[in-house]
């Protein structure tokens, strides 16, 4: 089954076209990477997939589990199983990580999560991410270091257990140890039912992961797709030469 099908997707913000015909299919169980230069529209693609209201889809369609979702709200998309880790996670002063997560899970699962079970799930996820329990008492992303923000995103993902995880530059600003831990946690979430879309600039993150396909994204569209070797070629050649040689 194809979990995600993006068909000739065009989208704009404030009348400015950013996505110019994106076609992408991710079968259930596969992890795909999107790589592309700054400003090519990668983050826009992730926002449009989750239904950010600032962006307008002007053409094309997005099918999730075989159903068109372009008219659905971000909340509905999340409940269907879509998850986005933002390139720049937003802080929520006044709301502790624990309370935030409890509410997110309640919304997605449609029922209260029993306190003891919740604590256990959170503690297990924290341990896997090499994080301390008191981290959850802090306000969400408030004064977090770059690495803490990214760990927190992965923590959310591991509790939410989404069908589709879109991770926008989850590896940016991480030291080598944090990168390895985050990569291990991402890889551990691979399953035959779950798909992932990883947006990254670097081959390094991908080297830790099972990646089924890499897409080179330039000017709001996928210009080239291939296997994992593409990331290495890209690092050696750069975008312009890679596309010219192809
Ligand atoms: P990437 O993630 O690949 O670096 P983005 O999706 O963030 O690219 O941005 C794609 C393009 O959209 C850029 O040229 C950026 O300047 C433009 N853009 C983003 N937000 C807005 C906005 N609010 N108004 C106009 N242009 C925008
Ligand atoms: Mg960028
Ligand atoms: Mg971006």
From TrEMBL:
In its UniProt record, a GO molecular function of this protein is: ATP hydrolysis activity
Sorted UniProt keywords:
ATP-binding, Nucleotide-binding
Task: Name the domain of life this protein comes from.
Answer: Bacteria
Q: Which InterPro entries match?
A: AAA+_ATPase (IPR003593), ABC_transporter-like_ATP-bd (IPR003439), ABC_transporter-like_CS (IPR017871), FeS-cluster_ATPase_SufC (IPR010230), P-loop_NTPase (IPR027417)
Domain ABC transporter per the UniProt entry, residue ranges: 4-244
Family note: Belongs to the ABC transporter superfamily. Ycf16 family.
- Listed name of the protein: FeS assembly ATPase SufC
Per the UniProt record, the source organism is Leptonema illini DSM 21528
